[in-house]
Each structure stands twice: as structure tokens, then as C-alpha cells.
Amino acid sequence: MIAITITDRARVTSDGRQWILWVRRGRERKKATGWRAAAYCFTRTGLRGAVARLSPDGDLSLLDQLPEFHPVPG
Fold first, then answer.
1. Exposed, middle or buried by CB within 10 Å (0-12, 13-18, 19+), for 12?
2. What's the mean per-residue pLDDT of the chain?
3. Domain boundaries of the chain, sorted by first residue
4. What pLDDT band is residue 1 in, cutting at 50, 70 and 90?
5. Buried b (16+ CB within 10 A) or exposed e, 20-58
6. Which residues 6+ apart lie within 8 Å of 12 measured at CB?
7. What is the pLDDT of residue 68?
8. Separation CA 62–CA 27 (nearest Å)
9. I want to staple 38 with a disulfide (CB 3.0 to 4.6 A). Which of 12, 14, 23, 27 is the partner?
10. How do residues 29-48 score in pLDDT, each as one tens digit?
């Protein structure tokens, strides 16, 4: 599984079919971590746009290690 930390409030993971941008809202509580899936992306370009929109202080160069299109599961 791919996991890239963009900021302390944004991270990218993969579920095998797409990249998922997770954004943390509020603070962690006993029954909730505050993380929510904010965007589901198949292309790196789409993911960069989502990160720029939802986490403008994030380092977009971290996404350069990803291929342009999410690999299709075999």
C-alpha cells in the first residue's frame, strides 16, 4: 500500500484501484480520528489538483514519484 504524507493534515493512500486524498478536520477524539476521504483520483494530475485545492500548503513535489495513471490491478 502506498502512503504519502503531504502535511500533518493531508495524506495520500492507494486502495489498489485509485489514489485517495485524506484530509484531517478538527481534532482526534475517542471514537473519531478526524480523517475523511476528500478525493478519489485515477491520474496524478487530478491528484495534484485535489491536493492544491484541499491542502494548499502541501508539497506537490512529493507526488512526482507516482506514475501519471494509477496502475490497474492485474
1. buried
2. 90
3. 3-65
4. low
5. bbbbbeeeeeeeeeeeeebbebeebebbbebbeebbeeb
6. 2, 3, 4, 6, 19, 20, 21, 22, 47, 51, 63
7. 95
8. 25
9. 23
10. 777 778 999 999 999 999 99
